[in-house]
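If your schedule permits, I should be very grateful for your opinion on a structural question. Kindly check, if you would, that the fold set down in the C-alpha cells agrees with what the sequence suggests. Thank you for your consideration; the sequence and its C-alpha cells are set out here:
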Amino acid sequence: MIAAVVSGIVFAVGLAISGMTDPRRVIGFLDVTGDWDPRLALVMVGAIAAYFPFVRIARQRSRPLFATKFHWPENNGIDAKLVVGSALFGAGWGLSGYCPGPALVSLGKAMPGTFVFVLAMLGGIALTRFLTRS
C-alpha cells in the first residue's frame, strides 16, 4: 500500500511540474492544424524512457518486490469494448483537455470545469459498471 501511495504522489507531482494538469496544454497538443504544442509529446517520451528499463527488469523477475505475483495484462485482443472505450476516452480527452489522472490532481485547483469533468467521469464509470454487470 505504501508503494502505491508513493507512486501516486510521484505521478501527481510529475503531472503538476510538467504542466499536464492544464487542459489548454493537452488541447494545444491535439490541435495539429493550428497552434500545436509539443510539450505533451515530450512528457510522454520522458515517461516512456523512465518506465521502460524498469519493465524490462520486472519482466525478468519471478515476482514483484511488494506483492506475491505480477498482474500483467492478459487480454491482448481488440474487441468492441476496447474500441468504444478508447473512442469515448479520446473524445472526452479532446473536448475537455483532461484525462483521469490530471483531472484528479487538478481538483486541488478548485476550478469548476474540473469538478464537472470528474463528476462526469465518475458517472461514466458507474454507468459502465451498471451496464456490464453479468
In short: The chain has a mean pLDDT of 88. The chain has one domain: 2-131. The chain is about 70% helix and 0% strand.
